[in-house]
């Protein structure tokens, strides 16, 4: 039935948009323009966002597309000095075309990875207005600028699960299939996914019913890994996916996947090479240690709590059905594909952040996966993303000179 | 030159001794017997250690040898109910013989993994007396009970690096080749290995000069991994090696291996399956992010600090020369052997803790490694441990019925 598989294009499930200056000011009444997120210029010509009485300069590391690694810098960068693909949907598509990126899911920048900005705002009613505007802009402007080229990712009001459900329903009706959530809500001052009061249950139920993928970007706990107070920065930076491993284990043992069989999570920019070890370890811990934990023995203040029926929990089956990861240049992860499962890994390009492989995205991925069967390559390049996000991409563009 | 390799025996570089009741009371003057660590009985016949005004009951999970997993319990256990191999060196050798364990390196129990007990004691002068007694007992009684069957591990006074150097010299002269150190001294209230005042430099210099392996057991920071406050206990338990990965990265980027070329560290009970991901990630972070870090840019309060010359740091070469891990049942780690290096992995049996594979130690390891060349198997079973700890084991015993 299928013609030859096209392996020249990938779908990136983790990129980043630097919101263009008009997102909010175009959509609020004139009276609210000064209190909505808007850009101002300092006397040196550097632009920065202003919202809720605070200034938010950009980080140069969030807009490195087109720069060499020697030029990377965390210093603030004016929009005028950025590659337009950072903030312009049509320009981004040109950059995607150049790099073999058929479609892209973008996380927000000013609102932070799961919309912490609006949760932390002093006026949450207006925060909700601004959050909805982000979602509308993402759906109606960014994604609509190039149909079939962008997978929308929306935000929820983290501070009110009932309002979050309404926003999920509203966005699902407009075509969204995924929302951003925190890898660990507790450091944000929010209940965990294990909260005994069931704080997040309405959101999880809605995600289940609406088939909205829970996308959790590394760092969406607003936590920076720190091995010790004066550990060399490079060690902490390397350690980043430690957070994602904790997220995976939290969800695996949470019982959420047993209660909500349609619930699926995407671990974004967390890589995958650490998964096989932790999956195997989870099986061993479950096998050997569950008896005394189940008897409710207290041990090191943990109280033997657990959110799932340990006797029936199947770590591998739960993982394969519900948990998805993605990779940029994770050779070890791909070498471990059989242990992780070829249906659970997607690729990403992290444009325009400092881990990005742009403009060599498709070449980089193909170099890592070219030894695999073509069907497997196709899954990693795009098939898994299409299935998970229920997304039908545009036909690959025919490029001039191609 | 070599005859056929004997693959029927392993050297375990991570086991545990429950100190017998006589360790300290036999070695202090009569007047100090009540204040030295000693055992008392409660009115139910349960024994517990007493030291420095505190009671220390045992944990059943630290003495499961001979029990089925269904029987594991963290409840205190009397010595009389433990398998004698837990605390008796001659009985332990019988258990080792039964399980194919040629030699064993044991971590302490009452003093904790790196001697925290004496560091925390109200009277450190007497704490040092007790610490030296532990070392003498380990060398003169435990190890001497079966020459060539035990690799001694000694403790240092963590609170005084100069005294620690003296104790290292004293123990090295008595044949010790390794000492216990903390995977992360900061949570213990001690300076980190990166401390700019050079707190640990005398200890590291002595370890280098005396070729004393720095053995760091998982949990020797006295930290229990906790993803969030109410994360299911099984998730936290599975996450344990997260600490070891932080330790490995701290040391890799510390500059210590560049300053002390003979320094070698052993990561004990941390498994190895997570290593390939973090080694690859370290190389990528070093490749892409070092330029802006070197320019001293401040980013997220870390200040771009680093303890090593990033331009000359070779992650793989540094790892292979200086860092050693061990495994119990880590199939993924062994599947990744080529990425980690067959000279850097040893095996362990964790006797008599709840991860132990006893009495099936040799069978378990052989099942995991039997597909490898015999020379490689030999390295993993014992060759690497012999080389790292400069240890010559006894000839394998000829067992009745074998």
Automatic annotation (TrEMBL), chains A, B:
Protein name: Amidohydrolase 2
Gene3D superfamilies assigned to the protein according to its UniProt record, in alphabetical order: Metal-dependent hydrolases
The organism's place on the tree of life at top rank: Bacteria
InterPro entries, per the entry: ACMSD (IPR032465), Amidohydro-rel (IPR006680), Metal_Hydrolase (IPR032466)
One Gene Ontology CC term in the entry: cytoplasm
Annotated source species: Pseudofrankia inefficax (strain DSM 45817 / CECT 9037 / DDB 130130 / EuI1c) (Frankia inefficax)
A Pfam family the protein falls into: Amidohydro_2
Alphabetical UniProt keywords: Hydrolase, Lyase
Keyword set includes DNA-binding: no
